[in-house]
Amino acid sequence: MPTLREEIAEKKKALVSQDPPRNAERDAEIDAFIKENPKLHEKINAYSKEYLVRQKILGIMETRKRDNARDQEIREWVEQNPEIKQRVEERVKNVPDENRQRAFLNVAKTELMKQGMRTPRPS
Predict the structure, then answer these.
(1) Nearest partner of 36 among 28, 24, 26, judged by Cα
(2) Rounded to two decimals, what is the model's pTM?
(3) Mean pLDDT, to the nearest integer, of 30-41?
(4) Staple partner for 2: which of 6, 42, 59, 78, CB 3.0–4.6 Å?
């Protein structure tokens, strides 16, 4: 009979090795795309795992870079509008320090939309 420590270790190992849950509708779309583009599927399937992992990480890096640029534009907009800055700071004054920066941006985006402006989208 395995010890509690061994059982916990096995459960952790099982959780780490599991694929994330799959979406049946999304899978159907992917399958249809693969069926329509078999050469593309063959080409990508021939790539090494290392290459595919690096490409995925690159995509994540680019998304974060774009999000950070958008957030910086929002901060600059708030700094240029003292009345907006005052309203935003008033709404986030009771937010814990560890959550304040994210709350500041969320409130600033709300204020931006109230002004009838879209949030900036860097290219």
Answers:
(1) 28
(2) 0.64
(3) 97
(4) 6
Residue 118 pLDDT level (bands cut at 50, 70, 90): low
What is the predicted pLDDT for the residue at 42?
97
For 115, phi then psi, to 5°, come to -75, -5
Give the residue ranges of DSSP H helices in the chain: 4-17, 24-36, 38-45, 49-80, 82-92, 97-114
Instruction: Write the CA distances from 38 to 20, 28, 55, integer angstroms.
Output: 25, 15, 21
CB 52 within 8 A of CB 45: no
Cα–Cα distances in angstroms (integers) from residue 89 to residues 4, 75, 78, 86, in the given order: 50, 12, 10, 5
Per the CB < 8 A criterion, the answer to whether 88 and 104 are in contact is yes
